[in-house]
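To: structure subgroup
Subject: Chain for Friday's discussion

All,

I'm putting the inputs and outputs inline so they're searchable in the archive.
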Amino acid sequence: MNNTTKPLNIVAIIPARYASTRLPIKPLVDLWGKPMIQRVYEQTKKSSLVNRVIVATDHGKIVETVKRFGGEAILTSVDCKSGSDRIAHAARDLDDADIIVNVQGDEPLIAPQMIDETITPLIQDSAIHVSTAVKKITNADDIINPNIVKVVIDKEGFAIYFSRSPIPYLRNGLNVTQWHLKHSYFKHFGLYVFRKEFLLKFSSWGESKLEQIEKLEQLRIIENGYKIKTVITEYDSISVDTEEDAVHVRNVIKLKGVD
């Protein structure tokens, strides 16, 4: 008898929304000779665990751009409220997909190793529905920055809560030289790995109250009684939300000599 288990089919989907308030047509912003969406796509393709990479977008220009550099793209509804809702829309027709990886379309320098680290818990434990990446905060300013999402984690490595506020709150005040001696703070990356059936369930719930308040889609999962496994990584990533961020990434690419 052959007891070989069929390998999991892992598909990474990159949500790419055309409109952006702070950085117009963000996915197509040039980053040292390549549009941002191409750099995200190429980094994701380097993952050793991902079998297929797809861009899910609401605009034909992005589809054309992706096809021009040899990538795969799916046109989705303009009404998707979040990145995960967009990838769920694209994943519905992927009959052979077991695991869906949501790679943010605005992180052109994301490490393939971080993607692999975040996928691994779902390969090792069939009871885990979703995982995400976090990193220990080393800069006190990040704790009070609302653009840096913080997360508190239980003893088993599952997220208790995510917030734009400093959590946990240090009642005796935040001493910028000693805060790290009192507690390890973690920041959250918008990298999610879902079992496909759970992703579709998650998308069907619609926005939750906490999600609406904090503008953090992962709170929808916690509010509906499910757990998110966190993976502590040593890798970092740069999110491009403004022209200043784009300039910073261009400088990093030039400095490191990235293709």
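Points worth raising on Friday:
Residues 11 and 106 are 18 Å apart (CA to CA).
Residues 243-256 form the longest helix (14 residues).

D.
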